[in-house]
């Protein structure tokens, strides 16, 4: 009996050790709150928490989780979840789990950790993470808005505004070492915050742009290590940004103005005994505008005079006796809200490729890449020497800058030396879109090492990687990365170089979906949806530009449709239904407005832009005048209204609004009947004048009756292959659906041909002509310069979506969004030999790498707590192997069916290596 007891004890001990070892294999990573890493000062009282699982082996599925949230790091370490102890919650969800603990008040610091249970063992507690709550209520703000409501003698408040930066400072005393110090600041247009001479944070171009009469964002910083016992100094510099507009007192009916820069500051010092001391903005501060930043204008550039530097201005002891007291000013008018998206930062640096002397004293510097940001220069010379840098995307034939396409933007930075030492400088309140720099006034010999390009955009992680055997596709993808990154500026803008830089809705409709495969643009686009809602009129109209810095309310369907399409993108790609739910009423209001004002006999009669920027018939044209190339605006508008109803019906069903869903469905039916009656020609079996867009929209949107679809698609193919000579002939609207439409209706070869063309018109043509970003026009090398940006992304359409969803076979499951399920079905065009791609989903990294020869080889990775539906090209299921054995016998796989040349399997998480005969 004793021997049996010892044996049983040994077995149990071995099993326990084995279980613990196995459990240790389950790890947790990438803890996020509201999809941000350790965010400070959020204004969401029930934030959503997310985490990712990792582990070896296959088919790891979470079965339960536990979350602890504590008011201090010490309590969390002790296992005391005094704010929330979830207990063991049986759920497979690991993304966006809503906090359900005690009510969180302004300024609360929250520390949290999580552990999970899986079908393959349990994790340990995760590494701790944290978040803090901002100032939730208006009366939590004890500071006052301060500013100075006029220009100074050296400023110019005119069309070409020149307004110097405003410097503010205040000294204060801290009675003892602080336990915690938190700074809250709103400083529209831009601000930099300093404590004791040190800049707070590493972001640039703070704060995020909004319509400041509707909402004003504030930022929160933990400055505990910056505040010292005794005397301290706090300072801020205000730039103009979008608040003091780039073209004031000019076209007042078009351009919205807000006023002079202003700020609101609150520094909360918490001591060990629990009492708080506040340092706030008021009239006891001192201010001056007679500092080194003499002018800052997003269109025109920044001028910095180092001879006027205010040495030590943000440190204790600076003599500010000659400074002014600021004015108490009116608040901007909008509600104060926390910044809930990533800040703008210097994300990388590049070095010049070439320096050429154009003429004596004038140099042209080639960065080798059309980039967005600024130049950081090193220089040594005499006091008063001026270095002038002017920026452009391209050169003229004589080697000088080509600036005609910049319109009246001056795009010039000027640095005046203080002299005697090597000086380093870059602007802080402007940015430029450029490849080439004209440099004049530089003392001494120029060296490439004296200049660095600092690339500036929202600090969004690059989450997608994509490479193929085709150089054209690779070059276009690379150009896309640079174009998209450069046009993220707290909102998606159309271009970074000319006197525009506006957040046009139409540019990002399907584009936002493609971008989401490259960048983690989740929070940026959720913020932009707020901007769009705030720009909606009381009647329901949505503008073409939001925030509505330009007063363009043209009442069309295609540009405002972006509002609905982005809500869908955020749900599908990131699994976030909250934006769609939050904005549902506004989206419905817009459709109701358009229906009431413009729908007649179920046809939408109003359009503004048509199929914007189709390839024109003449190289100098911006827009085609040939009626066989353009598409009927009523056709486009009505098709889009139908598509929006389809999307809104899905949202209504998601949110339990069944009456709305029925209403949307009934209206769809009536619109489809009217659309087909008005636009379909039964004799020619095509719509209206037969452009690709005219036929593609009703076909892809399921307006076309099933019996007519084959013929309509054949007309699309005929048009592309004959009239268009296997080239693209669509503009901004048609291109959003083109690549997927051709592929899903059985002509991926035609989509591939269009994607890999190198002659005009094509994306490849742009690259062949030396473009390193995406042009605004298909004929960007020959068109009139009045609307001809070298860095626009609107013509990408669904190309990047097609790259990832079709070529790389990485697509979110329809009923399991956010890539909880991954749909993997590769498109294999003739001539494409391999694709290597990866994508960081909310659950972890998906990899897809295939190569094609006499057989098909495919390596796949599925993250833990996710699954995949995998379609492998094969003649029969028996022709598919995984890691050298029959796929049907492999761990983690379940054969589903053969489907039109694909063997379909359900797969759990893990790494797989497939091979099949073609």
Task: Report what the structure shows.
The chain is α+β, with helices and mostly antiparallel strands and 918 residues long. It contains 15 helices and 48 strands. The strands form 10 sheets. Strands 19, 20, 23, 24, 25, 26, 29, 30, 31 and 32 form a 10-stranded mixed beta sheet that branches. Strands 9, 11, 14, 16, 17, 21 and 22 form a 7-stranded mixed beta sheet that branches. A hairpin with a 3-residue loop joins strand 46 (893-898) and strand 47 (902-907). Helix 5 (522-535) runs antiparallel to helix 6, helix 10 crosses helix 12 (735-744) and helix 12 crosses helix 13 (748-756). The radius of gyration is 29 Å and the shape is globular. It starts with a helix and ends with a strand.
Report a brief summary of the structure.
With 918 residues, the protein is of the alpha+beta class. The protein has 15 helices and 48 strands.
Key attributes of the depicted protein:
single chain, 918 residues, alpha+beta, 10-stranded mixed β-sheet, 7-stranded mixed β-sheet, 15 helices, globular
Main beta sheet: 10 strands, mixed
Helix content: 10-25%
The secondary structure category is alpha+beta
End-to-end CA span: 63 Å
Radius of gyration: 29 Å
Poorly predicted ranges (pLDDT <50, ≥5 residues)? 1-24
Number of H- or I-type helical stretches: 15
What is the overall silhouette?
A: globular
Strand residue content: 25-35%
Number of strands: 48
**What number is the mean pLDDT?**
96
